[in-house]
Design brief:
This protein is α/β, with parallel strands linked by helices and about 280 residues long. Helices cover about 25% and strands about 15% of the residues. It has a seven-stranded mixed sheet, with helices on both faces. The longest helix is centred in the C-terminal third of the chain and has 19 residues.
């Protein structure tokens, strides 16, 4: 009798996520909301799904009010066929292509029109890379918590310079700095990874297009990596999630990255220490 070796592969979603891990992913069973479906957020969403988010009836929510354009193609995961589609919906469909059991919802709107929905999630990721949006979301989160109401932890992602460095800041209800603590004054950043005198070149907007900062795909890829790592470590140990401020660089000549650490609260921070209105 001749026996032929057979091979049986599981395609169950948890098995695929955990197939090369030493322990089950701590993101399985966590509901994650991602704000921003651009260069950073598009990669974050795909890797979160591969890491366990969007399972077990705990959905992933993607919020972005913009449409995908040809200018986005060079540093985004969506194909050119998605041009003129809402980024949130197109990206949700792209994530669902990974596995039919993933639960992902795309909402094509400004995040500040649906902030009440964020309270139903375990983790919020600010992948906009926008300082004004990040500070406003930070103010909403810390103020809500100070009023005694629940609001999930928020991971803020940023790219510094023209793609020179990537950074994440995790803000929880704890005795550590919020995002505004790290930016106490306009134009100041305590954890600035850029060397003194290094500036960011802004490209003037063309007709129908706003001003933008030029950088290539490696910068948002690096930022997304930091986000997913921070999310995994938070999910594994919410009370001890590792360094809340993390920085990685792509250019050693123009950067002097601070060590990963938990920064202290700014005593005069108007967001987390000022009066609650």
């Amino acid at each position: 009798m001749t026996l032929d070796r057979g091979l049986a592969d599981s395609v169950a979603l948890p098995d695929l996520v955990n197939g090369r891990l030493s322990a089950p992913s701590p993101l399985i069973g966590k509901a994650v909301a991602v704000v921003g479906a651009g260069a950073i957020g598009s990669r974050v969403c795909l890797e979160l799904a591969r890491s366990g988010a969007g399972q077990s009836q705990r959905p992933m929510l993607i919020i972005d009010g913009d449409q995908f354009s040809t200018a986005n193609f060079g540093r985004h995961v969506l194909p050119v066929s998605a041009v003129r589609l809402a980024k949130a919906g197109a990206l949700a469909a792209e994530v669902r292509r990974l596995h039919p059991d993933l639960t992902v919802e795309g909402v094509a709107t400004d995040v500040f029109g649906v902030t009440a929905r964020l309270q139903d999630y375990d983790l919020v990721i600010d992948a906009t890379g926008s300082t004004p949006v990040g500070l406003r979301l930070n103010d909403l989160a810390v103020t809500t918590r100070r009023l005694g109401k629940p609001f999930p932890p928020v991971i803020h992602a940023a790219i510094h310079g023209n793609g020179l460095a990537a950074q994440t800041v995790l803000v929880t209800r704890s005795a550590h700095a919020c995002l505004k603590c790290l930016r106490p004054n306009h134009g100041e950043l305590k954890a600035n990874p850029l060397k003194p005198g290094v500036t960011t070149a802004v490209e003037s907007g063309t007709c129908g297009d706003g001003a933008h900062i030029n950088y290539a795909a490696p910068a948002p890829m690096l930022a997304a990596t930091l986000v997913v790592q921070a999310a995994l470590e938070w999910a594994a140990a919410p009370d001890m999630p590792g360094p809340r401020v993390r920085t990685r660089v792509l250019d050693l000549e123009h950067t002097a990255p601070p060590k990963d650490r938990n920064w202290p609260i700014e005593p005069l921070c108007p967001a987390c220490q000022g009066p609650v209105t």
